[in-house]
Amino acid sequence: MNKLNSIVSTLIVTPLLFLCSCQNGTGDKTSGSKDTTGSAVIKQDAAATQKKSEIEFKFATAEANLPAPFEVVRDITGYQAGYKPDLLNLNTNADNYVSTFKKEVNMGIYGIDLAYVNFYGQNQELLHYFVTIQKLAKDLSFDKVFDDYSDRFKNNSGNKDSIVRIVDNVFQSSDAYLKKNDKIQSASHIMAGALIEINYLSLNLLKDTKRTPDNAKFFEKVYQENLYIYHLMKLLEEYKDADSKALLAELKNYSKEYDSKIKSATDLTPENIGKASGLITTLRNNLTKK
User: Fold this and answer.
1) pTM
2) What is the pLDDT of residue 40?
3) d(Cα 236, Cα 206) in Å, to the nearest integer?
4) Could you give the count of Cα atoms lying within 13 Å of 224 in the half-sphere of its Cβ?
């Protein structure tokens, strides 16, 4: 199964250079004057290309170090953590999201919630979350691939394995479509939402899970999720928009507090889990509110 690119779509907004203004700035120049404008454009173009490459590299690095969302949620259900619908972002909240950033980040959150309800056999909720994600995709102008799979999804809503394959295909198709359109910043926001929701669900469910030899690997996997947050922060450092900067600041604060208390999986004691889950819940709820 593909890694987080099964939930995340690759999007980047390529900067427009000042080519038109350069072409219109000929004026009364003599043939002997130096073309400093053309030189400046070349430098700007080179800088933009380098910046784009750096962002793409960090995005690819983050993506390569991420778990497949369905596998994470499968682990949660496999270790018999109880179904807790109150942890999910209500699908009706999607109507409250106006900004592009909120739509992007909550698309990632809803993608993880969809995986969660699927493995707990909540078929009606599964359809609701698919329709919600489809709506956000339409708002973000890449809904066609969801439309192509809509009937198959509804007809197979009772088959968990079929749903995994269908959703995987949906997001692979979205990924291919959006890569073609060369956008990454929005994908980073979607990735952020998915990663935060994984961490939020895992820690909140871990609070009610007694550590045993059988579930020790689950505790280890939850601890490793801090590495995913690290790679996400490195990626968000590349963006200068207010939303990305605010999210990065919140993640840095969360990571600092987490690292001060939890340095290995053995530090995931009930007390530390409670503190960490409280921090990530506050961060996540800031993203899911209006």
Assistant:
1) 0.79
2) 54
3) 27
4) 10
- Phi first, then psi, for residue 65 (nearest 5°) are -100, 15
Name the stretches of the chain with pLDDT < 70: 1-49, 63-73, 77, 79-80, 171-172, 174-182
For tokens 């840095």, name the residue: 252
Q: Does any domain span residue 31?
A: no
Number of separate domains in the chain: 1
Nearest to 117 by CA among 170, 189, 167, 67: 167
Q: Which domain holds residue 171?
A: 4-9+54-288
Sign of torsion, CA 15 20 23 28? negative
* Domain assignment present for 32: no
Q: Is residue 274 part of a domain?
A: yes
State the Cα–Cα distance between residues 164 and 95, nearest whole angstrom. Answer: 26
Residue 11 pairs in a beta bridge with 183
CA atoms within 13 A on the CB side of 203: 29
Helix (H, G, I), strand (E, B) or coil at 183: strand
Question: Tokens 């993608």 — which residue?
Answer: 111
Per the CB < 8 A criterion, the answer to whether 148 and 173 are in contact is: yes
Identify whether 268 is part of a domain: yes
Assess contact for 130 and 111: CB atoms under 8 A: no
Site of tokens 């949660």: 76
Backbone angles phi and psi of 11, in degrees to 5:
-135, 135
Q: Where are the alpha helices (DSSP H) in the chain?
A: 19-23, 36-64, 69-78, 100-119, 123-139, 144-155, 160-180, 185-206, 216-236, 242-261, 270-288
Contacts of 136 (CB under 8 A, 6+ apart): 94, 97, 103, 106, 107, 110
Identify the pLDDT of residue 12. 29
Cα–chain center distance at 172: 14
Q: So what's the pLDDT on residue 41?
A: 54
pLDDT value for 33:
53
The mean pLDDT of the chain is: 79
Q: Calculate Rg over the CA atoms of the chain.
A: 22
